[in-house]
# Entry
Amino acid sequence: MTALSLRSLRKVYKNGFEALKGIDLDVQPGDFFALLGPNGAGKSTTIGIISSLVNKTSGTVSVHGHDLERQREAAKRCIGLVPQEINFNQFETVENIVVNQAGYYGIPRREAKRNAARCLEQLDLWERRRDVSRTLSGGMKRRLMIARALVHSPRLLILDEPTAGVDIEIRRSMWEFLRTINRQGTTIILTTHYLEEAENLCRHIAIIDHGLIVEHSDMPTLLGKLTVTDFILELKNPLAALPELNGYRLERLDDRTLKASVPTALGINGLFAGLSAAGIEVSGLRNASNRLEQLFMGLVASHRPARAEQFTP
Amino acid sequence: MSHSVAFRTILYKEIHRFVRIWPQTLLPPVVTTSLYFLIFGTLIGGRIGTMGGFPYLAYIVPGVVLMAVITNAYGNVVSSFYSTKFQRHIEELLIAPVPNWVILAGYVAGGIVRGLAVGAVVMGISALFSPIRMAHPEVVAGVFLLTATLFSLAGFLNALFANSFDDISIIPNFVLTPLVYLGGVFYSIDLLPDIWRGVSLGNPILYMINAFRYGFLGVSDVDLVQAVAVISGFIVVLAAWALYLLHRGTGLKT
# Structure
């Protein structure tokens, strides 16, 4: 049984915009799944439909075998949502926000308080439980939304850009927390614009663009499709002339910086050998962009011309 | 799944909200009704004499109490539910396995409790000016409950349709207040010329105020059964409408 199954899911907004064009998607139990796509691709609409915040036009959503339409309560009980935007009562205390959410799931108040205490402690918010939520920092507000989403122990946790706008230290501690609950059995679906985050955390990935799933595979297979990797090379001495290296593409960024496109088939050793032979010493090396980002950009770009042709009269 | 827990959670949240902001919710009716009793009851009322066979102050007490119940039941639900939409924490309820009827019942119950709290306070104040008598306490309780339910439902519908804070003040200011003041709070419609008496009978609030007055004083301008039927009819229509809109996600979902 899949944790999440979408079949022919379609959404047309009142203004006629078709946000989803009949997508199919399966997420297996225990997976850490990335749903990626550029702005306006349909990620938030998909998540909105799964979490009952957006009405679908057609298609089916099934959560752990429960159809979201026919077995609504059972399906909803499986889902926890961490939305993109802050959406809790800014005048309510931290503890009440989490306890009330448990109450909506039918958890009696005494048990709800115990669950809330566990979640707030896990997310390092216990000391702030009596504070009004609007007094929390941005990172704490994000953690509060995670605590609230976990208070009924959902089997499927959906995080819509959970680390947007938080500093790197908090982001990394969130990653560790999410890895831990995923190891404990919670299926996680993550959308993010930080592709490094998706590459680090997720085992499977789907890329959505213009309402269609344009890629759906496991992370190693997807990264294996990357045929060229771009590197930035810091040079020890100013570059006199750009060398010609067979199979590699070099671009001068400034006197001491080169961008090198390295085909996976050739590898990076050949590049260094060629540069050494040309008398060029390299003092530093880094990826021009995250590998997944490079692949993502290529995939999204490759689907755009096809669509443009469709609309050509 | 225990829907009663979800219902109690919404109700607890609603009560907690209006108690927390008591200077905005419980205090103003104390001030305004004290002024009504002082000016209309004691200062002017003394010159008016009797109405319907009762001292003027005793005559207006039921209407003033019910006016407070109406405005507070309505105001509680419309402002609370619209704020919930505005701050988007309605999403907490929409993603949870809470049926629409439980959401509606929770908010309406919150409005009823606020109406009861304010009604009790206003009645307590009225006791300072005029002794309270209840000819039919069961009618007082029944009409109070039906009226608070009806205006809580109306407030909920207003909040569902509202897209701005202006939208939640238009109905109370330009519809509800005139209907309440022209609903016989301060006078008997027997004083009106025939044509205005007929117009007044089209005002549903007239039936509520007179039924409530019947519970206190045993006198009414309208038939009690007719009044209860009018209120109950409105409740059924508004509840069905609210549930239909919740099912469609009107004002809540895209």
Summary: Chain B touches chain A through 28 residues (CB under 8 Å). Strands of chain B lie at 50-51, 54-55.
